[in-house]
Specification:
about 240 residues; 5-stranded mixed beta sheet; 3-stranded antiparallel beta sheet; 6 helices; 10 strands
Length: about 240
Amino acid sequence: MLYFNLIFTTRQLNCPKVGFDSIFNRTVIILKQLVTLVILILTSISISFAEPKPVTPPTGSSAAVAEIKPDIDSYLLAPGDLLEISVWKEESMQKEQILVAPDGNITFPLVGTLMAAGKSISALEIALAAKLADYIADPVVNVKLFQNLGNTIFVIGKVTKPGQYPVNRRIDVMQALSLAGGLTPFADTSWLFNDILGDGGSIHVLRRVGNKVQVFPFDYNDVLNGKNLEQNILLEPGDTVSVP
């Protein structure tokens, strides 16, 4: 197209009958086409020589550690948890599976009885290493959570899926209700009068402490509307959320 425009313009220049305006307009069109052609050529050259930036993907182990580390650090051991404990370069202390007893203690060679409940995995590793330092030079202890059956909460009553729920971190009442599929249409969420539970919502949390049972009232409607959020307490292992 550009070639024919050039020929046509040249012929117009040689023809005395053609006006100057027509020649000028044709010349402008040719110049625009030349500029467009140059831009296209430069663009294609730049694309052909452009090299993508090398991207170094994260290694599998690093990605896995970054992903699970917050859960491991925040999880607190509880009675019923099954641990796998090993000490580096100590053949007699490799992959010992130890259950956290109902009183929260574990028993490990050379250490004896040690309180594990309420500690994080890393805190227990430090405590074991400190005890073993009396017998082993610079002990390196590795603790793995084999089964987290200890951190279990219960949701009963008028929820979609009542039952027992093992969790790998501390959760609050609303999260527990969500795990249970939420309330059924028949659940009572109204504010009750003063009774043996004291002022509180119809939903309540039962927590056994020794031989006593503590009761924590929970008003679902208030928390749902962003009021009295202090009721939405973090649950402890063994807590029961009751929904009448």
